[in-house]
Design a protein that fits this description.
Blueprint: E1 3-15, E2 20-32, E3 36-40, H1 47-54, E4 63-72, E5 75-76, H2 82-88, E6 93-96, H3 100-103, H4 110-122, H5 126-139, H6 145-148, H7 158-170, E7 176-180, H8 188-205, E8 208-213, H9 216-222, E9 225-230, E10 233-239, H10 240-245, H11 250-257, E11 306-309, E12 314-317, H12 322-337
Parallel strand pairs: 3-8, 3-9, 6-7, 7-8
Antiparallel strand pairs: 1-2, 1-4, 4-5, 9-10, 10-12, 11-12
Length: about 350
Amino acid sequence: MEELLRVENLKTYFFDKKKTIKAVDGVDFAIKRGETVALVGESGCGKSMTSLSIMRLVPAPYGKIVEGEIHLEGKNLVRYTENEMCKIRGNDISMIFQEPMTSLNPVLTIGEQITEVITYHKRLPRKKAVQQAIELLKLVGIPRAESIISDYPHRLSGGMRQRVMIAMAMSCDPKLLIADEPTTALDVTIQAQILDLMKDLSKKVNTSILLITHDLGVVSELAERVIVMYAGQIVEQASVDDLFEEPLHPYTQGLVESVPDIDAEIGRLNPIKGNVPTPDQMPEGCRFAPRCTHAFDRCFKEEPQLLQKKYGTRTVRCFLYEDEEKGAEHARKDQYSHR
């Protein structure tokens, strides 16, 4: 598949008079056209700030992208002006935020908010924009779309508001849809409906999805590939099947083991001990070492690099796989030398 988005060495820092907070610290990943990629990790690991960096919505003046590149179809968005980004947001890249009630304007009707996006990017006359808004509401499964379009957000349920957010995000057929915890505040039945909806819309218009979540159940349902973040860095990347079958990084193993098993006998859950370090108090060496059951002396002194494992099909940031990577590198060199 053709590559749509590439993020290279992204560093997003926050500054005040006394300290520098490294919210996102050297992140690299790519998303192919039509692919659904999940970005997972505990709260505070940098997932949402990575998405805001892609959208160029890092809170100013304290926050700033200090290094790195964000390429959308080969164009580096970091170099774009705010006026140029306004043409990208909602058109080429759309975002579904975590809480619809704080994202929807309470004093504007649903129709006014959807048509605003359509008229700005597509330059359609108001009558056609309203008709398209109604069609979008029907597409995302909202009944009585003709009357709902005149309602205000507070009159809708949480699930309905989330569907409205999806309709707004998909109104201009974006190339990339960023969904930040799209099902967090919804009950299980509505969660399943929203996930099915996103999956169907992605197939219909070939939209790539960056799904930000801490819910591995959602990941297994929707994503094809998983990026695991911890303390502002990527610690593992793998396909969904590989990650659940054989998690490599100790942090990923902890995440998978902490998920309750419905078929197992009732017992104690297996949480990861400790907490994510605050961005202004990162430990020396491996950032997960203070919580890791496999940590040894080197882990507390040196920071591990992201290694490619199994001939480049997945990556992991851990000293445990360093010798294995060296062996794989020798094997690759031998393979090419015999060609």
